[in-house]
Design a protein that fits this description.
161 residues, Alpha-Beta Plaits, 2 domains, 11 strands
């Protein structure tokens, strides 16, 4: 079962714990870093500092996040099952599906999970691979999800053995 942990920290501290986190995750997962927020300060010759993107991570790529509900269907299948199957047949590196505790979408209706109410709750899928693998699939993925969810694309870097 996928486990999703998300941390927000300043870049300097994040870069310090990245090697330890990489060892802990090992071959069992990956660490994804949002490039838009992944900055650090470097000293300049004049004694000041400048902010630059770090290249200490191993791979550049794309993360696609799909937001849907666990009861939404396309072509007779649950959206998250249809998407996972679509991407598995195209050898995408990483796909994880997570059930949310609560949230709302375009209709502004609050959706919550609970002990006795396990349906119609938010689902988030995270897809990660190199741009040359994901980019050609985006059109088909958006078409597959249709009006049963929202597809978001983000440039990322990741550490994965």
């Amino acid at each position: 079962m996928p486990v999703w942990l998300q941390f927000i920290d300043n870049a300097e501290r994040g870069l310090r714990w990245l090697p330890s986190a990489t060892r802990i995750v090992g071959d069992g997962g990956m660490i994804v870093i949002d490039n838009h927020n992944h900055l650090h300060a470097e000293s300049t010759a004049e004694g000041g500092s400048q902010t630059v993107l770090t290249d200490s991570v191993t791979t550049q790529g794309i993360q696609v996040t799909i937001y849907t509900l666990d009861t939404n269907k396309v072509h007779g299948k649950l959206v998250y099952q249809a998407v996972a199957e679509y991407l598995r047949h195209r050898d995408v590196l990483w796909v994880a599906t997570m059930r949310g505790l609560g949230g709302f979408g375009e209709g502004r209706e609050i959706r919550e999970s609970g002990w006795f109410r396990k349906q119609d709750t938010p689902i988030m899928m995270v897809v990660v691979d190199k741009a040359e693998k994901i980019s050609p699939l985006l059109g088909g993925l958006v078409e597959l999800v249709g009006n049963q969810g929202t597809v978001v694309r983000t440039e990322v870097s990741w550490v994965h053995p």
